[in-house]
Amino acid sequence: MLEAERKQGQFPLLEMSHLIYGGKEQFDKFIERQSFFDNHPMFKANHDFFNLSRQDQILLNAERTVVALKQLSLADPSYYTPNVLCFQGIFVSTVHFAMVIPAFQVLASDEQIQKWMTLLKNLNAFGCYAQTELGHGSDVQNLQTVAVFDKQTCEFVIHTPNIEATKFWPGELGLYCEFALVFAQLIVDGKGYGVHPFWIRIRDKDTHKPLSGIEIGDIGPKMGYAVKDNGFMSFDHYRAPLDSLLNRYIKVSRDGKVERQGNPKVGYGSMMYMRNILCDQYTKFAGRALAIAVRYSLYRKQFKDDNKQEIRILDYQCQQQKLFPLLAEFYACVFGSVKIKELVNDNFNRISQQNDFSMLGLTHAVLSGAKANYTYFVANCAEWCRLSCGGHGFAHYSGLPVIFFEMSPNITLEGENTILNLQLARYLLKQLQHIVSKPNAVPEFFKFLQLETAKLDDVTSLDNLVTLLGLNCANLTKYAAQKLMSHSDMKESWDTKSGIALAKAASTFIPYFNMLCFVDTINNKAKDTKQILTVLARIYGITMLLNNMQGLLLKNLLSSQDIRTLQDTREQLYPIIRQNALCLVEAQGLSDNSLQSLIAPKEGDVYMNMYNFASKENSLNKQQVHNGINYIQKMREVNAKL
C-alpha cells in the first residue's frame, strides 16, 4: 500500500539518513546494531510485554542486558543505540556507563582512575550516581547528606541527618549496584567545603546485602522507566576510607588539611554528558513516534470523497497540521543535537585532557536550554502522534504510549526544565552585558543579542526567519533584564518578580539555535536534499514564531499582515511535505522490529495485525473463562441484597 508513497519522494533517502545520524559511519553503525536486535530472539517485539508484572519486566530486562553485553559495547561513550533500539526497558547498565564512568574520568585523580577504571568498565565495580535526595534535587549545593572527616581513623563518616537527606531516585541503586558515587557535604574540623563525590561500596561483595549502616531499596512504580530500579539510600554513620573522596580537584590529607585545585564547577562535567545523551539519542524517539503516526495516517482511511473513495487521513489538512510541524521540529532538533554533541565533546576533552575550562560556560548554557527544549518536544511529539492515531494510538500495540511514558521523565531528570531555562537565562544576561562592555568576548551563537530591529520584505525566507527568531529572543532577554533590574534586591527580583520573563526569554533561544544549525546543514552538508530541507526549515521557523512571537510584538516588529503571511505560507508548504512525508520518516532507517508497532508496519494489513494480537497473543485471553468471573457472581449477590 505504501510503495507508491515511497516512489513519489523527491530526495535521495540515503543522503538524508547520513544527515540524520551525523554521517555515513554513524548511520552504518546504527544499521549494524539494529540488525543485531532484529535478528536476536530476545529482542523481538513483544506486544504482550505490558501484561507482565513489573518484577517480570525487570528480570526480562536484566536477561536482555546480559545478551546485549555479549555482542555490543554498552560502554561505548559515542553511541547509545542499544537504549534507542530496545525501548521496552532501559538496560541495567545505562546509568553506570553514561554517568558514573564519565564522572570518574572528570573527578577522579590519575591514581584513582588507574585503580578503578578497568573494574568499572568490566562491571566488577558496578555503581550508581547518588546525588538527588528526597528533599533536594536541582539545588545541589544544599544537599544534606554529610561526610565528616574523622582525623582519628582517617575516614569519612557518611551520614543521613534527616529524612529529607535520604538519597532518592538514583537509577540502578534499588536492586543492582554494589557501589555508589555519593554526593555529600564535606566537613573537616567543623568547616564545610561544599558538595563533593565519594566512591563507596554499599553492598556486600558475596551476599549483595546492604552493608551495616546503610539502608537501600527500590522506590516503587513510576510513570515510565518501569524496569529501572530507581532507589533510596540512607546512611547511619557509615565509615568510608580516605581515598573514597574523588580527589582530582580537592584533597584531604591524613591530618585534615584541605587543598583545592582546579575549577570547582568541574562536577557539571558528568551531568553534561548525560544531558548530551538526552539531546542526541533520546531525541530520536520523536522520530520513531512520527514514523508510526505518518505510516498509520497513510494506512488509515476515513470518510469518502465525491468519487465515493475513502480518504487517507494524512490528506486532511488538520492531520497535516498535527504532524508536519512536529516533523520539521524533529529535523531541527536532530541537526541542533549534532552541533551540541560537538560542543560537549570539545568541552569534555578540554577539561579532562588540558584542564581547560574556557568552553564550560557556553556549553553549559546551550546544553541546559537544549535539554529543556528537546525533552519537552519529544514527550509532546509522542503525545500528539498518539492523539493523531485516534483510538488505536492509546493501545500499547501501537508503540506510541511507551514512547510517551518512557520519555516524559526526561523532562525532570538530570535537571528540571524550568531550572535549566533559568540557568540559560543567566548566561543570556551575562552576554547581554558583554555586548556593550566586551563585544569581542560574545560567542558567535549569542551575537544576535545586539539586534534591535529589522526591516524585512519577506518574513518567510530562511535568513529572515533566523533574524526574526534572534530578534524575538533578544527583545525578550532585554525585557527580562529590565524587569530584573527594576528591583533593588536582585535575589528577590530573580526569585519572585522576574522569573517568568527570564524563563520565557530562555525558551526562545533554542529555536533560534536550532534554526542556525538547520541552515548550516542545508548550506554546508546537504546536496540533493537541500530543497526538501529548506521547506522543513521554513515550516519550523514559521511554527516557532507563531507559537511564541511575544518579543517581536513588544517592539511592533510584526504586523497583522505578517502574521497572516506566516500562517498562509506554512499551509502552502504542507503539500510538499505530504508528497515526501513517508520518505522523511523512513530516512531514519527504522525496522519494523525497532518501531514495535502493529499499526505502522513497512507493509501489511494493520487491521489483521491488531486482530491477531488481540485474539492470539494477548496472554489475558489464554484462559477461555477468566477467574475474575467469580467476582461477577458475588457482585450480583451483593446487588440482590440492596
Structure, explained:
- It catalyses: a 2,3-saturated acyl-CoA + O2 = a (2E)-enoyl-CoA + H2O2.
- Keywords: FAD, Fatty acid metabolism, Flavoprotein, Lipid metabolism, Oxidoreductase, Peroxisome.
- One of its GO terms (cellular component) is peroxisome.
- By secondary structure, the protein is of the alpha+beta class.
- It has helices at residues 3-7, 13-21, 24-39, 54-71, 81-85, 94-107, 110-121, 268-280, 284-299, 317-354, 360-388, 401-407, 417-437, 462-485, 490-497, 499-507, 509-524, 530-547, 550-554, 560-586, 592-595, 606-617, 629-641; strands spanning 127-130, 146-150, 155-159, 167-168, 179-188, 191-201, 214-218, 231-235, 238-241, 250-252, 258-260, 301-304, 310-312.
- Strands 1, 2, 3, 5, 6 and 9 form a six-stranded mixed β-sheet that branches. Strands 4-8-7 form a three-stranded antiparallel β-sheet, with no helix packed on it. A two-stranded antiparallel sheet has the order 10-11.
- A hairpin with a 4-residue loop joins strand 2 and strand 3.
- Helix 10 crosses helix 18 (530-547), helix 11 crosses helix 13 and helix 17 packs antiparallel against helix 18 (530-547).
- It starts with a helix and ends with a helix.
- The relative contact order is 0.11.
